[in-house]
């Protein structure tokens, strides 16, 4: 009974510390993700309310749409660092397009002037992969949440390792949820929302970030920038999902069952507005083949793993 009480007290203390840490840091930036904002005006400089602004990366599949307010302003938060094709449409104006390169967490300010349409015609805007110019000299692979949703995962507990294994060239699966890149497997580093993690990740020896919480990843397999330290084999730059801008609650619940009595479950939920946001994800796994034994028939190999992810954001302006 005393042990149970101590565990509850430790849990409450950890929760309180996490809450106050978030409160003290609530005005910080969105980590490695960027912010794109600006105004839509006409040739005279007058603002255009009700214009539709779309940003899209055809390579990763990332796409966002916003509508300008009464002051002609638009805002995109938690935009993964990458190159994007921006298109603006408004009634009575020609379609305006340009490319925007997001490579910093500092907000990018844009003022886009639209021309009055000379005639009434339907215009279909399409952004091809060849339209975007990649300016990053490092050998890397961009992975978006649209791509991760299509990757068949063995379990939610080793989702990060499996996504890296299946989407990055030169990476192969290793035992017990590890992966092995080109070079020394210990020369791997993670940067999750600008927080460096140099420890190895596996479902057995550590909890990984769930796949449902990943907004995008940049997997650097050659010439990593100095800002990520001295790891030379692979650097995984991860941007997590945020509830900012989600005026309507979104979420999902899933369960799975497989061989060796494997049972898994996942719960995701996100909600927010223009200033506040919260994204929550919980995963659980129990299996009769927790480790990778050398024999075909697993004996005394039952194990379970649980993970909890929550991201809370507050932007005062």
Structural overview:
The strands form five sheets. A five-stranded mixed sheet has the order 8-13-14-11-12. It has a four-stranded antiparallel sheet with strand order 3-2-5-6, with no helix packed on it. The protein has a four-stranded antiparallel sheet with strand order 15-16-17-18, with no helix packed on it. The model is unreliable at 1-16 and 18-29 (pLDDT under 50). The N and C termini lie far apart (48 Å). The chain has two domains: 34-118 and 127-131, Immunoglobulin-like (Sandwich); 136-317, Ferric Hydroxamate Uptake Protein, Chain A, domain 1 (Beta Complex). It is mainly beta and 317 residues long. The chain is elongated. It is built from three helices and 18 strands. A hairpin with a 2-residue loop joins strand 11 (188-192) and strand 12. The chain has helices spanning 2-24, 145-148, 159-167; strands spanning 34-41, 52-56, 63-67, 73-79, 82-89, 96-102, 108-113, 139-144, 172-173, 179-180, 188-192, 195-197, 214-222, 234-240, 250-258, 262-272, 276-287, 303-314.
List the helices and strands and how they pair.
Blueprint: H1 2-24, E1 34-41, E2 52-56, E3 63-67, E4 73-79, E5 82-89, E6 96-102, E7 108-113, E8 139-144, H2 145-148, H3 159-167, E9 172-173, E10 179-180, E11 188-192, E12 195-197, E13 214-222, E14 234-240, E15 250-258, E16 262-272, E17 276-287, E18 303-314
Parallel strand pairs: 1-7, 11-14
Antiparallel strand pairs: 1-4, 2-3, 2-5, 5-6, 8-13, 9-10, 11-12, 13-14, 15-16, 16-17, 17-18
């Amino acid at each position: 009974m005393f042990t149970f009480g101590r565990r509850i007290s430790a849990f409450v203390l950890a929760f309180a510390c996490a809450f106050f840490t978030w409160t003290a840091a609530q005005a910080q930036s969105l980590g490695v993700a960027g912010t794109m904002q600006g105004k839509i005006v006409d040739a005279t400089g007058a603002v255009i309310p009700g214009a539709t602004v779309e940003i899209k990366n055809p390579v990763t599949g990332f796409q966002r749409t916003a509508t300008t307010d009464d002051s002609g302003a638009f805002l995109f938060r938690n935009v993964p660092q990458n190159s994007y094709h921006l298109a603006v449409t408004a009634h009575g104006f020609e379609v305006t397009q340009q490319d925007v390169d997001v490579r910093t967490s500092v907000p990018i300010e844009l003022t886009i002037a639209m021309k009055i349409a000379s005639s009434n015609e339907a215009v279909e805007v399409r952004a091809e992969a060849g339209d975007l110019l990649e300016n990053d000299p490092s050998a890397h692979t961009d992975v978006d949440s649209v791509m991760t949703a299509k990757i068949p995962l063995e379990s939610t507990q080793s989702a990060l390792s499996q996504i890296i294994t299946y989407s990055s060239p030169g990476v192969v699966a290793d035992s017990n949820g590890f992966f092995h890149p080109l070079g020394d497997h210990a020369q791997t580093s993670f940067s999750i929302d600008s927080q460096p993690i140099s420890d190895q990740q596996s479902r057995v020896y550590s909890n990984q970030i769930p796949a449902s919480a990943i907004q995008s990843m940049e997997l650097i397999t050659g010439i990593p920038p100095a800002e990520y330290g001295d790891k030379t084999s692979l650097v995984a730059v991860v941007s997590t999902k945020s509830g900012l801008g989600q005026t309507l609650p979104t979420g999902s619940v899933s369960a799975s069952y497989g061989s060796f009595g494997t049972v898994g479950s996942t719960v995701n939920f996100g909600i927010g507005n223009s200033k506040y946001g919260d994204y929550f994800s919980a995963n659980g796994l129990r299996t009769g083949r927790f480790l990778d034994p050398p024999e075909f028939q697993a004996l005394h190999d039952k194990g379970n793993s649980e993970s909890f992810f929550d991201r809370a954001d507050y932007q005062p302006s």
